[in-house]
Amino acid sequence: xxxxxxxxxxxxxxxxxxxxxxxxxxxxxxxxxxxxxxxxxxxxxxxxxxxxxxxxxxxxxxxxxxxxxxxxxxxxxxxxxxxxxxxxxxxxxxxxxxxxxxxxxxxxxxxxxxxxxxxxxxxxxxxxxxxxxxxxxxxxxxxxxxxxxxxxxxxxxxxxxxxxxxxxxxxxxxxxxxxxxxxxxxxxxxxxxxxxxxxxxxxxxxxxxxxxxxxxxxxxxxxxxxxxxxxxxxxxxxxxxxxxxxxxxxxxxxxxxxxxxxxxxxxxxxxxxxxxxxxxxxxxxxxxxxxxxxxxxxxxxxxxxxxxxxxxxxxxxxxxxxxxxxxxxxxxxxxxxxxxxxxxxxxxxxxxxxxxxxxxxxxxxxxxxxxxxxxxxxxxxxxxxxxxxxxxxxxxxxxxxxxxxxxxxxxxxxxxxxxxxxxxxxxxxxxxxxxxxxxxxxxxxxxxxxxxxxxxxxxx
Length: 460
Hints:
- The chain is about 35% helix and about 20% strand.
- The protein is α+β, with helices and mostly antiparallel strands.
- It has 3 domains: about 5-90, Uridine Diphospho-n-acetylenolpyruvylglucosamine Reductase, domain 2; about 95-215, Uridine Diphospho-n-acetylenolpyruvylglucosamine Reductase, domain 3, CATH 3.30.465; about 220-410, FAD-linked oxidase, cap domain/gating helix (Vanillyl-alcohol Oxidase, Chain A, domain 3).
């Protein structure tokens, strides 16, 4: 359907205030936070209700028009880039916190609510929304559910998939379903909720989400340990986990990241260290002090340790957390483009993976800084380059191939928390195998028989 007639038809369906097809809007929705990917949509719609979403999907099915659901566009796998044109459905007008139930420890929200907005709202009830992605100030609950986002608390608490109790969703047929609900225990039928979480908008569009909450910790404490090498830091991580400690935070930065962060934020970090290990815990003050003290003691006696420091107050603790959270913007200052990637390996392979990434950096003559979640083996190698240098861009693409293949060789995965999207789709067969990939395709056909939802991604 021609762009003008598509926009006109959707305007007649939803009203002029819900439909945008001007060049500025189309350009704004042509990208998400993933570099090197761009696709121009034909039209953008901003529904305000489940019924409006369902009407748009029915229209898209009738006209065989691709439809891409999008939240804040902060994902890092090109999951919301409209590579096939079509309709982008912005969920940002569906941003109500419908209910917070203290006694049930749950919240019911629309998909456009940001992670921070939800956590701030439930904090008033002494509760916490646990998932803690790095982009939490802008990332939406709908987007988090679509990609099953992770974050800094994953080791102790789990990730988004562990905190979604139920969904209201629109299928590729325009039908509306509800999965799960307010129950802690419910094993009637297949677990469709878990199937939809992480499906990246290829099976359904989420319009309402019921999330589990936890009591808000009374206390939190953090510390930092510096090591000569990342291998030394990895040995300390193994010792901490082997001691039966399950901390809320166990993060690492390599030397490239440490230098970039220190130059960016001036936090007094040891820029000569080969690796920084950020550790911390939350809960009641007595158990937190015991856990953090034990991690400090283990780190202090570990091989290659340079120094261990505990944050004396909240301000110092926030500075340590900021050092981890600002790794990407700090690295991004070093070039006109930064590509933040996401692989996971078995924890004992962490140091081997980091060392191999350094060799990949040397092989392709690229600056690659690596940071991530040491406790669960999730690494974020970040390539910094000149976006206008075609040869450097090509070398970056080759290095990404090496990094994804490295993860698979070490028994890991091509994505731990960002998702597959378009960026990693070429490597999905190597990860899943032919039979599993075929099963994905068959599942897609059931939920979206005309394959209009986010085509060209999972299940396509």
